[in-house]
Specification:
15-stranded mixed beta sheet; three-stranded antiparallel beta sheet; single chain; globular; 20 strands; alpha/beta
């Protein structure tokens, strides 16, 4: 006698929507009613393939029910090196057949890792991937000639693209073929967001393409300094910009003078181009480190600027950025107590005067100890914290976020401090002078010392964790 089903199919379907993949698979095997519906639910979620066995299994899963499951697949990540054709394995052929069959009607998001390698060893897949018509989001790379050809022939109207270039490609002599603003012309009317990694040469102005009217978000992550003119011309509607160059977090006390010459050369070129041909006019948010933003040489209004000052970044650069661009709101992140010396933030605040940003939010993250000549040196002490407060007394900061971390140690009977190990006794603050640090007291000291500040958030992590959030009372002024 057949067992009576305890729950209606619609209830089971709702339960399946929230089940983990392994649970959903088990439900499909034990409930005939969910065999078809469960498969649709499974492929509507992001599918990540990272090895050959998973790839074989997934392709077999898609071929079931006359490949009807393919039309429900929405988000696929292929991060696997497919076997070479000489290896007796039908993986690439099965994938080719599915792609050629135009079965992926709802596939809107695709990530294709190792793209150049895959396309060079499985040449038939290039035309198959190019035939996809439903993609709106694509992450692809490392991109060489074959990958870029795929993009040129792609039948989809991409809106969001992450493009990682392959190292070793001759970008200098083939810029007119390889530059992103050239390669992506097929998506000129649809592209809204672009993230580029590893392209670091410019383009002759005579080869600049038509404008992309809907491009609003641009992320440039380059191994070298980018010249911005081609992007400013092609993407005039950009509102959100993130810039990362080879100089991000690379400046040191030893190389800063040498590197400054290169950074300044790119800055002058970028500024000359903007002065002559124009610049962005609709920037809402811009993100980068001090050297990144300095070499960009912005000559435009920026609503919100997220600037990170790494350990050896000169604050003269930060000052130049803020004086050249018109910044409404600044979020400044610093990671060293040295930032509060006279030639650091105090210099910036004093020089800007009333011409600085309308709103300034300061984010400070410090480590009490720093590596110094193969040893650990205490760099944050009560005296240095007091100096920090005094340096901010006349600053215009409205929000102050402060996080202090101290590595704890084990205090031995011999009086020697060494890194803590769980079996060696009690934890002790590595910077003994900070063991009595009180977040609430420090937060209120900030309010008392800095009249402009309205919100303070202080945290301290060591042998214990503390946090204090204090807001100034608008009525009492305290």
């Amino acid at each position: 006698m057949a067992q009576k089903q305890l729950l209606p199919v619609d209830v089971l379907s709702q339960v399946a929507l929230f089940a983990e993949r392994s649970t959903l698979s088990a439900m499909m095997k034990t409930c005939h009613a969910l065999y078809h519906e469960g498969a649709k639910i499974m492929v509507r979620r992001r599918v990540v393939i990272v090895n050959i066995p998973d790839c074989v299994s997934f392709l077999a899963f898609l071929r079931a029910e006359d490949t009807s499951r393919c039309r429900f697949l929405q988000d696929l990540v292929l991060s696997v090196e497919l076997p070479r054709p000489a290896v007796p394995n039908p993986v690439s052929q099965h994938l080719y057949n599915l792609l050629e069959g135009r079965t992926f009607r709802c596939l809107t998001s695709l990530r294709l890792d190792n793209s150049e390698s895959v396309l060079s060893t499985h040449t038939k897949l290039a035309s198959s991937f190019s035939s996809l018509t439903s993609l709106t989001s694509l992450f692809i790379g490392p991109a060489g000639v074959l990958t870029l050809a795929l993009l040129t022939n792609l039948k989809s109207d991409l809106k969001y693209l992450v493009l990682k270039y392959q190292s070793g490609v001759d970008q200098i002599h083939r810029a007119s073929e390889l530059h992103p603003v050239i390669v992506l012309q097929p998506f000129r009317e649809s592209l809204e967001s672009l993230e580029v990694h590893g392209f670091d040469v410019t383009l002759d102005r005579a080869q600049f393409p038509s404008e992309y009217p809907h491009m609003q978000e641009l992320v440039l992550n380059s191994p070298d300094c980018p010249l911005l003119a081609p992007y400013i011309h092609a993407f005039p509607e950009v509102r959100n910009l993130s810039l990362t160059t080879v100089f991000a977090n690379r400046l040191t006390l030893d190389n800063i003078d040498f590197e400054y010459e290169f950074i300044n050369a790119y800055r002058l070129t970028n500024q000359d181009e903007q002065d002559v041909y124009g610049t962005w006019t609709k920037l809402e948010t811009v993100t980068g480190t001090v050297p990144d933003l300095y070499l960009a040489g912005f000559r435009c209004a920026i609503q919100v600027l997220y600037m990170t000052a790494c350990t050896w970044d000169p604050f003269e650069m930060a000052l130049d950025v803020l004086q050249d661009a018109s910044v409404s709101r600044l979020h400044l992140s610093v990671f060293t107590i040295a930032a509060f010396e006279d030639n650091g933030l105090p210099l910036v605040f004093k020089s800007l005067g009333d011409t600085g940003p309308d709103a300034l939010h300061l984010h400070v993250r410090l480590r009490a100890q720093e590596e110094y000549e193969d040893d650990t040196k205490i760099v944050v002490t009560p005296d240095s914290l007091n100096y920090l407060l005094q340096s901010l007394a006349s600053s215009p900061i409205q929000t102050f976020r402060f996080a202090l971390r101290c590595e704890y140690t084990n205090y031995t009977t011999a009086g020697v401090h060494k890194p803590f190990e769980a079996s060696e006794g009690p934890r002790v603050c590595g910077a003994q002078e900070l063991h009595a640090f009180d977040c609430d007291v420090f937060a209120r000291q900030v309010l008392e010392t800095v009249p402009a500040v309205q919100d303070v958030d202080v945290s301290f992590t060591c042998t214990r964790k503390q946090r204090a959030i204090v807001k100034r009372n608008a009525e009492s002024g305290k």
